[in-house]
Design goal:
This protein is α+β, with helices and mostly antiparallel strands and 794 residues long. Helix content is 63%, strand content 7%. The longest helix has 35 residues.
Length: 794
């Protein structure tokens, strides 16, 4: 088959080049016409019908989007200077004028409640007059007489203050959110330059926007960085600008096709799909290494360029196809998960990995058929050099010191298993973000001064109309409030109870001594006044549904580690069940922080399943190739060992299991198994040629494929090492762990794999010499096949 493919490619080289140019023009057109967008919404980690997601949607339907709050904080004595405070108030007014901003909650705009003697109920009045607004100390002094604002607007222990900005929930998942947040960020920067006062900006719209902006900037940076790193190593090995240019054209075509694929499928660029273009680059370069190494090796034998290209396709085409298919299948297993984010990532990656193989097998032979013959300097790397010395050392270990190899492997496994026991999981949504980024440091300010910034919501369904404002339910909710506050991991909990306390204080002429829940005697007249407060002045509208049967409780969690977050939520859920019996009430916990934690757990389980499927697919492929049960184990052991070693390293280095790190195993396994297939494919060919002599087959396979395996491993190290410079901690971990895994995989495939083959010689030889199991075509293995000449192409 591959002889026919080689002939077809070389005899139609002009048509193929024209077709490729036309195809790339179509891809570029798709990108320009359809556009490729960066995501503006949160990644959906769980399926639509998961109970956690159903509760989250139900909550948003009842009470609206809870992640629409932006906070601006400060803690500086200079704010007491009248001029500075006036500038700050002017800035907040400018923010309020932004179309997507619906309101601002600041000390200058804070209100108190007064009884409305005309309409009944309460009406809001500004606590400070217009003339008092410029006096920061006076404003703060007046605000502090209202306990409702404590820990919500000011920290009573110091001068830390925050302003709450409300964004229109309708634009939270749109591009307008990004532009509005960037405008606010620019205003904050301007204020800081003019006054020298440090402001802190946070909230979920800010976190998501800054996260998106980092993804945008890093996508382009990593594409070019990975391209530069891999191509530099490629050039150092091959010493040819022409070869490097061809490699660049192949990976560039793959990257363009990747973006076009996302545009055609309507996918947005997420943190995961942004990894696909750099992945294609580091996966595509090894294809070029194997093909060009074989081409130069063949040319070095007989100095016939077209014959060398033909034999390059025949002998490397099939293993390359298999390696790319296995890598693609490894990513394709993600489509069997219930996460839309993973499905998109897996589909885009798998399609384009197959695409980069097609580009490689078409572009290299057609381009080189037009190029001049390689010069001697281009072939120097095939002669004895430092890589040959390394491979010679490895070959000596395989032939003469296999017991030591197995002892080292056993030692690695034991040490790794001890590390694996220490691995933890992480469901913290801020865990992957750069600790050096300004917006991350701003989060720490709100954690320390106001209790947190990550929304956690509680929904309470009384199952009875207007039951929320009953004294019994209010007391139960107040008990939950106090319990959450006692955990000391969140901001002040807001609910209808705090608003009723606020109303009671107003009823008693705003005496702060009366900031508590009404007694049974006070209930009737105070709650009646609360219910009579309608329209824009409705006190409980945001915290009670329109039937009065459902209530919400809102708090902002600190940036907790996964174990602490899980423990806190478990305690809250247990307390809810205790205070609100399930026979009478329906309660659940939701919010961005909780949904992300549960989504991480769900994603981790699905990634483990996809990795297991990938291993199963590879096992099936090995079974088809060799039809010998022991070969499945011989092929898998060298690729599972690096995964075990990496898991152990994660335990020792306290790197938790999370979506970004567990992805390491799927990516590294899919790539590392490529070397195994290339080695076994060459070994299989030589085994038939030497009529079952395993030692000679292993030695020749190491001599001919070893260089390419070493080159590709170094290229992959360079390609993935660029991720170490990411602003996302998770991407840094991914880059470092994949690099480590591939280093172990290289030694495993060049030392452990041939060692296992030679150890199991007696078990293997019988099966391998039977002609009916030949996975390769007979013609593809012969040297006396009809060779093409340059005249055959004209």
């Amino acid at each position: 088959m591959w002889r026919k493919i080689a002939t077809l490619i070389l005899r139609n080289r002009v048509r193929i080049m024209i077709g490729l140019i036309a195809f790339m023009a179509c891809m570029v057109t798709c990108i320009l016409v359809l556009g490729v967008k960066f995501t503006t919404s949160n990644a959906q980690l769980m399926p639509y019908d998961d109970p956690v997601m159903q509760n989250f949607r139900d909550f948003q339907k009842t009470f609206g989007n809870e992640a629409n709050i932006i906070t601006i904080g400060y803690k500086d004595d200079a704010m007491a200077v009248s001029e500075n405070y006036q500038r700050f108030n002017a800035m907040t007014q400018e923010i309020l004028d932004i179309p997507g901003i619906t309101g601002i909650f600041s000390m200058s705009d804070a209100v108190k409640l007064t009884k409305d003697s005309v309409k009944g109920g309460f009406k809001p009045e500004k606590i400070t007059s217009e003339t008092e607004k410029t006096n920061w100390n006076l404003v703060r002094q007046k605000i502090m007489s209202f306990p409702f604002y404590e820990s919500l607007m000011y920290n009573k222990d110091n001068k830390a203050t925050q302003v709450i900005v409300y964004m229109d929930p309708e634009i939270v998942d749109s591009k307008q959110r990004i532009s509005d947040v960037l405008r606010i960020n620019k205003m904050v920067d301007t204020f800081e330059k003019e006054t020298g006062i440090r402001l802190y900006l946070s909230g979920m719209p800010v976190i998501r926007t800054m996260n998106t902006e980092m993804v945008k900037s890093e996508t382009a940076i990593f594409i070019f960085a990975s391209l530069f790193a891999t191509c530099l190593i490629f050039y150092l090995f091959f010493r040819s600008f022409r070869a490097t240019a061809v490699a660049v054209s192949i990976v560039s075509s793959a990257v363009i096709t990747c973006f076009a694929t996302m545009a055609i499928l309507g996918y947005e660029i997420t943190l995961l799909t942004a990894l696909v273009p750099p992945l294609l680059i580091v996966i595509g370069i090894p294809n070029c290494v194997y093909l060009l190494n074989k081409y130069q090796s063949e040319f070095n034998k007989h100095r016939n360029k077209i014959k060398a290209l033909q034999r390059m396709i025949i002998h490397v085409g099939n293993p390359s196809m298999l390696t790319n298919l296995t890598t693609a299948f490894g990513f394709l297993t993600f489509i069997f998960t219930n996460s839309s984010t993973l499905r998109e990532f897996g589909l885009v990656a798998s399609i384009n990995i197959i695409g980069i193989f097609i580009f490689s097998i078409l572009i290299i032979p057609t381009a080189y058929s037009f190029f001049p013959e390689p010069k001697d300097r281009h072939l120097q790397h095939h002669k004895f050099n430092w890589t040959n010395r390394i491979l010679g050392w490895m070959e000596n270990l395989v032939i003469n010191h296999r017991p030591k190899v197995y002892q080292c492997v056993a030692g690695v496994v034991v040490v790794a298993l001890i590390g694996i026991i220490q691995i933890k999981t992480s469901g913290n949504m801020l865990d992957d973000m750069s600790k050096k980024a300004r917006f991350y440091n701003d989060i720490s300010f709100f954690d320390n001064e106001f209790g947190g910034i990550l929304p956690l919501e509680i929904s309470i369904d009384t199952k009875r109309a207007n039951a929320v404002t009953s004294i019994n339910v209010l007391n139960k909710m107040d008990e939950i409030n106090h319990f959450i506050d006692s955990l000391d991991v969140s901001s002040k909990t807001l609910s209808v109870t705090e608003l009723v306390k606020f109303a009671k204080q107003a009823y008693y002429n705003n005496d702060s001594a009366f900031y508590n829940l009404p007694t049974s005697q006070e209930r009737a007249f105070i709650l009646n006044e609360v219910r009579n407060t309608q329209g824009d002045n409705n006190l409980i509208g945001n915290y009670v549904d329109n039937t009065g049967s459902k209530a919400r409780m809102t708090t902002m969690l600190q940036n907790l580690d996964s174990d602490k977050l899980s423990d806190v939520i478990e305690k809250i859920q247990s307390k809810l069940v205790q205070v609100f019996p399930q026979e009478q009430f329906d309660t659940y916990v939701t919010g961005v922080a909780y949904v992300f934690m549960k989504g991480t757990d769900f994603l981790t389980k699905n990634l483990i399943i996809s990795l297991s499927l990938a291993i199963l697919l590879i096992a099936i492929l090995m079974a088809i190739m060799f039809r010998a049960p022991q070969m499945i184990f011989i092929a898998l052991i060298p690729n599972i060992l690096p995964l075990i070693a990496t898991a152990g390293l994660m335990g020792y280095m306290n790197i938790p299991i999370k979506p970004s790190t567990i992805l390491v195993f799927s990516i590294a396994f899919g790539i590392a198994v490529d070397d195994t297939i290339h080695f076994l494919a060459k070994y299989r060919q030589d085994l038939i040629f030497f009529k079952g002599n395993i030692r000679k087959s292993v030695e020749l396979a190491m001599d001919e494929v070893g260089n390419s395996m070493f080159y590709t491993s170094v290229v992959l190290f360079a390609g993935f090492s660029v991720f170490l410079f990411s602003g996302f901690i998770g991407i840094v971990a991914l880059g470092g762990l994949v690099t480590f895994t591939l280093i172990i995989a290289m030694f495993s495939n060049l030392i452990l794999l041939p060692s296992l083959l030679m150890t199991y010689e007696k078990l293997s030889s019988k099966d391998f010499t039977e002609p009916d199991i030949d996975f390769f075509e007979e013609d593809d293995l012969k040297d006396d096949i009809k060779d093409l000449d340059i005249n055959d192409l004209n």
